[in-house]
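This part of the workshop introduces the protein records we will be handling. To make this concrete, we reproduce a full record directly below:
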Amino acid sequence: MSRSGNESCLRGAEDTVSFLVCVFHQWEEWAGLGQLEDYLSVLEYLLWVFTPLIIVFILPFLIVILLYLSILFLHVYK
């Protein structure tokens, strides 16, 4: 049965890109990665949620730390 899927990839591919896309879809089906799109959607949502938190809390903390380090550097090498 998988042989007919491979033959359809070989027969229907006009160029290398379409062949690689077909092979990737066959591999995805064989490996059972049908939920890969849903998983990536969840990762995109988590990135959407946590990016403002990182900007609001971690970025100012890093700016303050770098400010203190630069003041210390200027004080030591004065």
The radius of gyration is 25 Å. The CA atoms of residues 9 and 38 lie 25 Å apart. DSSP finds three helices and no strands in the chain.
